Every structure is written in structure tokens, then in C-alpha cells.
């Protein structure tokens, strides 16, 4: 971090802290999905329907994100990145606290189930504006090694996964059935702390310098930068595969293999893969400014296409803890190449006056497609074929191919960053 000036370090740190807290809140749902399902959907006795409903509610929060991300992106392009980030972290913290304190079906009946779904949707709205805002404010503010800076930010995001895994395991050991409530309450309180800390963020100079009279409208974003939007969606789809399938859905996938293990133990088994992602995102981000951001993204997407089928096959067929640890680490190494580089590429697709709108729409639409469809599609493939490795493997291959397509379009279109030289994007 010493390679950046003080203002750049503060932006990376303050944007990253919020990203940790927001993803912690969001990931808790998947970690404690069984306990939450038992609390709010006790009236459903069929285990298959209950499992399907649990995944569906997880997906709903992703399906609202394109609308939320687009609207909040437009607002962020009008009022600034700082104000948007203050709003999203406050909303996420409030939803988390309410979810932790809310009575279950036994006390409130169907109203409890309905209210919980509404809070999940509001979490999706908050996340729809949070991460695009954090990505853009770092991209526009940091002076120097921009590839490394955006990789550091994503390292903070993966820190949210690590934090939620650690808290989930610890709370389950201490509180037992009450663990999921304690986790959400802690997340809510930390969200309010994050809001207080994040007030020290400053608006970006790029945003301040926009000519308000020549600002593009949202309709011009679609008409003028349609190809850029499509490229952004394709590139983020491979990122969403990692964010949804390799860090969230995989928890349920491994639970179905290791049926005698509880949620906390599954989190511990998967923690080496998340540690791998966190560490190597940092390493690959540092290398990207030397080797080329586009080259490293392309390698990562290509490796995922090649490795998805054998990794999930070995994970399922061997079915041991050691096999799951090794194979999950391998696929995370591939994903780290993508995670370390995509933020710069995505932000670089759009000019300043529509950047947050463009990033918000493409990022959240991609996550809605993968988060809303991939878990259900994977479950459907598994049900139809009786091979539980085929679902996530096929999803991974398709997402990897789309990521490569997005990179091809990016290289044809070019970018808007002031330091976008051959060293940055060389392939």
C-alpha cells in the first residue's frame, strides 16, 4: 500500500471495509440456509420443496439487482459516488439487524416468512449499488498501479466471505441453533460502524470535473455504449460464476456430499479455497500491472473452461474431505486470475458521466443471470441426470466462454482510463 499516496490508500481502505461488511451480511444466508428454512418455512414438510424454496429465495435477491443497480447507478452518476456508498451500507446493516431480531413462523406465521423475503430483496437492492459504487470510486480515485488497487478491493470483498465463514463456524459452536440470529445481529451492528467510518470518503475528482451540461442520459448509455454493456455483462458472468457457484452454492453442494457434517464444519472445509482466492487475488493483481490485465483475465477464464468438469467430477466421485479441499483450491486459483483483473476492465468500458450506470447495470445483470438462474439450472441438471457434478460444471464452462467473448469485445473497443497504455491491457 506504500506505493500509493495517502488519499488513494484511504479510498481503497474505506471502500474495502464496506465491501467486507456488505458481503458478510449477504453470504450469511447461504451458510445458515438450513436453519433459516426451519425457522421461517416450518409449515413446508416436503424436504425437496423446502430445499427448492430456500434456493429460490437466495436467487430472488439477485434478480432484483439489475433494477436496483441501474437505478442506484443513475443516482450515483447524478449525486456522486460517496453519497451512494453511505446509503447502501446503511440499508444493508439495517436489513441484517432486522433479520436477526425477527420472530419466526412459530410466532408470526406467514407474515414472518413474507417479511423475511422482503428483507432479502432489500439486501439485494443494497448490494446492487454497493459493489459497483466501490469499484468506480477506487478506479477513479487511485493514482498509480490501478490493476493492483482494484485487486486489493476485491481482496476485501473475499474477506467478507472469510469473515462470514469464520463467524458462522464460531457462532455455531458457541450458540448452536441461535447462531444464525447472532450472525445477522453482528452484521447489522458492524454495518452501522461501517457507515460511520465511511463518512470520511471524499468524492472523486473525475466526477467533480464532469460538465453537467454535457452529461449523457441513460438512454444514450444503451444506444451509444450498447456493445460496451454487452462486453461488461459477459466478463462479469464469469466473475458471477465464482461469486455464486464457487463461494455460495458450493456450500450446499458439499453439504449434499458430506451429509454427516453441519454448516460450520462445511465452512471450515471450504475455508482453504476462500483463503486461496483472497491471497492469490492479491498476488495476481500485483502481477497484472506488469504482465497485462487482459492477458491474466483471459488465462483465468480459459482455465475455468478447462478445469470445471474434472474439478467437480473429482469432488463428487471421491467424496472425501481432502479431495474437496484440493479440488476447490484448484478451481479457486483459476478464478483468482479473473477476480484480480475484472474491476479495471469493467470500469474502463465506460466514460465518467455514465460509468456508474454502466457498471451497475452490466455488473448486476450478470449476477442476476448467474445468481438467479445458475443454482436452479444446476439443481435441475442434477435432478435430470442423477450426476451431481454435471450441473455446476456445465454452468462453469458456459460462463467461461462468455467471459472470453467479453474480453474479445473489450480489446476491440478499447478503454477510457488515463493510463490505459499497452502495458495495462496488452494481450
TrEMBL record:
Residues 11-415 form the Major facilitator superfamily (MFS) profile domain. InterPro entries: H+-coupled_symporters, MFS, MFS_dom, MFS_trans_sf. It comes from the Bacteria. One of its GO terms (molecular function) is symporter activity. SUPFAM superfamilies: MFS general substrate transporter. This is Major facilitator superfamily (MFS) profile domain-containing protein. Its main location: membrane. PANTHER family: ALPHA-KETOGLUTARATE PERMEASE (PTHR43528:SF1). It comes from Francisella tularensis subsp. tularensis str. SCHU S4 substr. FSC237. Keywords: Cell membrane, Membrane, Symport, Transmembrane, Transmembrane helix, Transport. One of its GO terms (cellular component) is plasma membrane. The chain crosses the membrane at residues 12-32, 52-72, 84-105, 111-139, 146-166, 178-197, 218-246, 266-287, 296-315, 321-349, 361-383, 389-411. It holds the Pfam family MFS_1. It is a multi-pass membrane protein. It is found in: Cell membrane.
Amino acid at each position: 500500500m506504500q506505493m500509493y499516496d495517502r488519499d488513494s490508500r484511504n479510498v481503497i481502505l474505506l471502500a474495502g471495509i464496506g465491501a467486507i461488511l456488505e458481503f458478510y451480511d449477504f453470504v450469511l444466508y447461504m451458510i445458515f440456509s438450513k436453519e433459516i428454512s426451519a425457522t421461517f418455512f416450518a409449515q413446508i414438510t416436503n424436504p425437496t420443496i423446502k430445499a427448492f424454496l430456500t434456493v429460490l429465495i437466495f436467487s430472488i435477491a439477485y434478480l432484483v439487482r439489475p433494477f436496483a443497480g441501474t437505478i442506484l447507478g443513475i443516482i450515483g452518476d447524478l449525486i456522486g459516488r460517496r453519497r451512494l456508498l453511505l446509503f447502501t451500507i446503511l440499508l444493508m446493516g439495517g436489513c441484517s439487524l432486522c433479520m436477526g431480531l425477527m420472530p419466526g413462523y412459530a410466532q408470526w406465521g406467514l407474515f414472518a416468512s413474507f417479511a423475511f423475503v422482503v428483507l432479502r430483496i432489500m439486501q439485494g437492492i443494497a448490494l446492487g449499488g454497493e459493489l459497483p459504487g466501490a469499484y468506480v470510486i477506487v478506479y477513479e480515485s487511485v493514482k498509480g498501479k490501478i490493476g493492483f488497487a482494484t485487486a486489493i478491493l476485491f481482496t476485501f470483498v473475499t474477506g467478507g466471505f472469510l469473515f462470514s465463514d469464520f463467524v458462522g463456524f464460531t457462532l455455531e459452536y458457541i450458540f448452536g441453533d441461535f447462531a444464525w440470529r447472532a450472525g445477522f445481529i453482528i452484521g447489522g451492528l458492524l454495518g452501522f460502524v461501517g457507515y460511520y467510518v465511511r463518512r470520511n470518503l471524499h468524492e472523486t475528482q473525475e466526477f467533480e470535473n464532469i460538465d453537467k451540461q454535457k452529461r449523457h442520459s441513460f438512454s444514450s448509455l444503451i444506444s451509444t455504449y450498447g456493445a460496451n454493456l454487452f462486453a461488461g455483462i459477459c466478463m462479469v458472468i464469469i466473475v458471477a460464476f465464482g461469486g455464486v457457484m464457487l463461494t455460495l452454492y458450493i456450500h450446499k453442494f458439499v453439504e449434499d456430499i458430506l451429509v454427516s457434517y453441519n454448516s460450520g464444519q462445511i465452512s471450515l472445509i471450504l475455508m482453504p479455497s476462500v483463503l486461496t482466492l483472497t491471497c492469490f487475488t492479491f498476488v495476481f493483481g500485483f502481477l497484472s500491472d506488469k504482465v497485462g490485465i487482459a492477458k491474466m483475465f483471459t488465462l483465468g477464464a480459459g482455465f475455468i473452461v478447462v478445469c470445471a468438469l474434472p474439478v467437480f467430477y473429482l469432488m463428487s466421485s471421491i467424496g472425501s474431505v481432502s479431495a474437496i479441499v484440493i479440488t476447490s483450491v484448484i478451481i479457486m486459483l483459476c478464478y483468482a486470475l479473473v477476480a484480480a483483473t475484472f474491476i479495471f476492465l469493467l470500469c474502463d468500458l465506460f466514460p465518467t458521466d455514465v460509468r456508474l450506470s454502466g457498471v451497475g447495470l452490466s455488473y448486476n445483470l450478470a449476477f442476476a443471470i448467474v445468481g438467479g438462474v445458475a443454482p436452479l439450472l444446476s439443481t435441475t441438471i442434477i435432478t435430470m441426470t442423477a450426476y451431481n457434478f454435471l450441473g455446476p460444471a456445465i454452468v462453469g464452462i458456459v460462463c467461461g466462454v462468455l467471459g472470453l467473448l467479453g474480453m474479445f469485445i473489450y480489446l476491440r473497443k478499447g478503454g477510457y482510463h488515463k493510463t490505459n497504455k499497452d502495458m495495462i491491457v496488452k494481450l
